[in-house]
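Researcher: Let's do a round of design. I'm pasting the structure tokens now; please hold your answer until I've finished.
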């Protein structure tokens, strides 16, 4: 009986402890809900909510940054330069600034007297943050000295505080980090674009609701490519701001004297793109003297020739529904498929219906590229795909040959192969990875397939 009571008493004690812990956790949870994520001796650095702030000024020795929200809700920079502000950059900064944890700091030897601000690196401070909301402003100064744990001393009015190390990152933000890098800021829809690419000029314009090119090309255009390119130009944002003046020496050193391209939109905005300097390209617009920098790869989808808008899908538009046989021929492999009443089979009657469907979809999904880059190639090595109808007539032929490195900047030096179809008289380029994926669609039951023609 005694043993039973001891066990019962132990169980009751454990139950009470568990219940007490649950109650404490619940109370602490409710307290956290009411007071936010700050401890009892902490508070936010500013009383404003980040989304309500409409003014920010950062004063420091290396220069002042000042931004404010305009009546239309857009942010504007007034110092160090007058420029538009990237809204997400401003809002993320304000959120970080207003949620920094600060706590009161009262040294033992100064409880009765005035604070010696210089002792804490606050006279003068390293930086001062001024936030405003509807005309009301709050100020927080950051010390040039670190506290014992790497945190910072702060001054707000006549109160000495301690702040987290996150203030160091806030202080390191440059004025350029707030600025918009959007080059085209006109709200009017684009109706015309003029391009001068190394002396080769063309215009993209809309006629009767359809996009065309002047001078008119002899090949079909892909309206989707034109619209996507115009969107890229209008939304293009270089990676870096280099400087806010453009001198003749800058033009020489940054290879802007003889531009690689000029792009004009609606006749009232001009983008000048310099020559490649290693992996970088420098550029500017006629709206401001700011020089921007972007990578060669980053500008490749903007700096394009007229051939870029050619509809390369036309070279692969054959009637799939008429296909009855598929032949793959190369120096290393020959694969033959035919369509029966039950589906596609190999010459050994192995069912490859799923593989054949995937293969045909991949084949129709190919797009001819680099027409201009491949013009010098007159011969194609013998590796080809032939598709025939029920009478044995070839309805589609694709032949490909030697591998080469993509010449068009928009293709970023990828591995290509010279190719040709019966639907396109010109030699063009195809990405090697596309060809490899194409023939892999049949590799499961027809044996290993290699797009190499050698």
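Researcher: That's everything. Go ahead.
Model: Designed sequence:
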């Amino acid at each position: 009986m005694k043993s039973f009571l001891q066990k019962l008493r132990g169980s009751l004690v454990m139950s009470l402890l568990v219940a007490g812990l649950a109650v404490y956790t619940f109370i602490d949870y409710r307290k956290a809900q009411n007071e936010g994520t700050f401890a009892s001796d902490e508070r936010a650095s500013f009383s404003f909510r980040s989304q309500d702030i409409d003014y920010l000024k950062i004063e420091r020795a290396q220069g002042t940054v000042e931004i404010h929200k305009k009546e239309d809700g857009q942010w504007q920079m007034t110092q160090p330069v007058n420029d538009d502000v990237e809204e997400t950059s401003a809002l993320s900064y304000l959120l970080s600034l207003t949620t920094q944890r600060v706590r009161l700091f009262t040294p033992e030897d100064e409880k009765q007297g005035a604070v010696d601000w210089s002792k804490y690196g606050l006279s003068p401070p390293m930086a001062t943050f001024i936030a405003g909301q509807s005309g009301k402003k709050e100020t927080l100064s950051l010390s040039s000295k670190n506290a014992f744990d790497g945190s910072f001393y702060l001054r707000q009015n006549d109160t000495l505080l301690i702040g987290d190390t996150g203030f160091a990152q806030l202080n390191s933000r440059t004025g350029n980090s707030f600025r918009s890098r959007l080059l085209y800021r006109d709200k009017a829809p684009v109706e015309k674009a003029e391009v001068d690419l190394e002396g080769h000029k063309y215009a993209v314009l809309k006629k009767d609701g359809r996009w065309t090119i002047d001078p008119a090309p002899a090949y079909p255009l892909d309206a989707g490519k034109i619209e996507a390119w115009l969107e890229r130009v209008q939304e293009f944002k270089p990676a870096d701001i280099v400087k806010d003046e453009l001198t003749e020496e800058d033009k020489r050193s940054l290879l802007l004297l003889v531009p690689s391209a000029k792009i004009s939109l609606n006749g009232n905005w001009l983008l000048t793109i310099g020559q490649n300097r290693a992996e970088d390209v420098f550029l500017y617009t006629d709206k401001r003297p700011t020089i921007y920098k972007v990578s060669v790869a980053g500008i490749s989808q903007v700096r394009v020739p007229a051939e870029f808008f050619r509809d390369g899908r036309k070279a692969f538009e054959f009637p799939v529904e008429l296909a009855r046989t598929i032949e793959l021929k190369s120096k290393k492999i020959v694969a033959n498929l035919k369509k029966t009443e039950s589906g596609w089979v190999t010459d050994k009657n192995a069912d490859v219906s799923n593989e054949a469907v995937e293969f045909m979809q991949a084949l129709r999904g190919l797009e001819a590229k680099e027409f201009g880059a491949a013009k010098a190639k007159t011969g194609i090595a013998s590796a080809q795909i032939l598709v025939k109808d029920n009478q044995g007539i070839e309805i589609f032929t694709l032949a490909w040959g030697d591998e080469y490195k993509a010449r068009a900047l928009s293709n970023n030096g990828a591995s290509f192969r010279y190719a040709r179809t019966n639907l396109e008289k010109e030699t063009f380029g195809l990405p090697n990875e596309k060809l490899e994926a194409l023939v892999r669609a049949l590799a499961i039951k027809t044996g290993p397939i290699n797009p190499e023609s050698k």
